[in-house]
Amino acid sequence: VKRVIMIDTKIASRLGPAKEALNNKNVEVIVYDHHHRSSEDMKATYDYSREVGATTTILVNIIKRKKIPISPLDATLFTLGIYEDTGSFTYPGTTHKDLEAASFLMKKESNLFVVLKFLNLSLSEEQHKLLENLIMNCKKIKINETEILLSQAEMPNFIEGLSVLTRKLSQIEDVSIAICWAKMKEKIYLVARSDDKDVDVSEILKIVGGGGHPQAASAVISDMSFEDIESKLLCSLKKNIR
């Protein structure tokens, strides 16, 4: 391996087995990421990280600057990436650069009908089952007058979309902060969402090895029980919510 390109992360521990390639000092590391910097960040040969709402925005700006031609299909795919990462420009991390990138893609004939179709996909049968389990197991706690929803579930197979289900659960239960974790196969996947500008869930999840954005963070855990996770989260919530 001579070159490693990291997209949407700069933390080696999140690469799984691929992180072993980074032990070679001669490997060129290129990073495209929009997450906040942390002490765990890799030292990259070329770091194109920017504080924007979507990593796709970084790529689009490079394409725009270098005048690289793109097709309407390319423009549509890039637009979908920006819409997904910014919550259709509603997430607090969205910047004017994301809107400008989307405007550029519209000029390149991005198809919003296709974007809308993929953004509004209905839940699969497995996702419905996972959501039902999360609803049944959810509980609300209060820390310094801030209400937080916690929920957990266990499924035999890996199911995509825990982040979407966590968002849906927060809307169903009408809370601004939700943390959900689910054991699927051998690992536990954890997602946190916050609509409270004063509550940074990326800080809260550091205690379980997670990270991300102030309003959207996640972790993949393989060495903790549900009880340990909840105990650590409660400690972190009490520390970070004042």
Automatic annotation (TrEMBL):
<dbReference type="GO" id="GO:0000166">
    <property type="term" value="F:nucleotide binding"/>
</dbReference>
<keyword id="KW-0819">tRNA processing</keyword>
<dbReference type="InterPro" id="IPR001667">
    <property type="entry name" value="DDH_dom"/>
</dbReference>
<dbReference type="InterPro" id="IPR003156">
    <property type="entry name" value="DHHA1_dom"/>
</dbReference>
<dbReference type="GO" id="GO:0003723">
    <property type="term" value="F:RNA binding"/>
</dbReference>
<feature type="domain" description="DDH">
    <location>
        <begin position="3"/>
        <end position="82"/>
    </location>
</feature>
<keyword id="KW-0808">Transferase</keyword>
<dbReference type="Pfam" id="PF02272">
    <property type="entry name" value="DHHA1"/>
</dbReference>
<keyword id="KW-0548">Nucleotidyltransferase</keyword>
<keyword id="KW-0547">Nucleotide-binding</keyword>
<keyword id="KW-0694">RNA-binding</keyword>
<protein>
    <recommendedName>
        <fullName>DHHA1 domain-containing protein</fullName>
    </recommendedName>
</protein>
<dbReference type="InterPro" id="IPR038763">
    <property type="entry name" value="DHH_sf"/>
</dbReference>
<feature type="domain" description="DHHA1">
    <location>
        <begin position="165"/>
        <end position="228"/>
    </location>
</feature>
<dbReference type="GO" id="GO:0016779">
    <property type="term" value="F:nucleotidyltransferase activity"/>
</dbReference>
<dbReference type="Pfam" id="PF01368">
    <property type="entry name" value="DHH"/>
</dbReference>
<dbReference type="InterPro" id="IPR052390">
    <property type="entry name" value="tRNA_nt/polyA_polymerase"/>
</dbReference>
<dbReference type="GO" id="GO:0008033">
    <property type="term" value="P:tRNA processing"/>
</dbReference>
<dbReference type="GO" id="GO:0046872">
    <property type="term" value="F:metal ion binding"/>
</dbReference>
<keyword id="KW-0479">Metal-binding</keyword>
<keyword id="KW-0460">Magnesium</keyword>
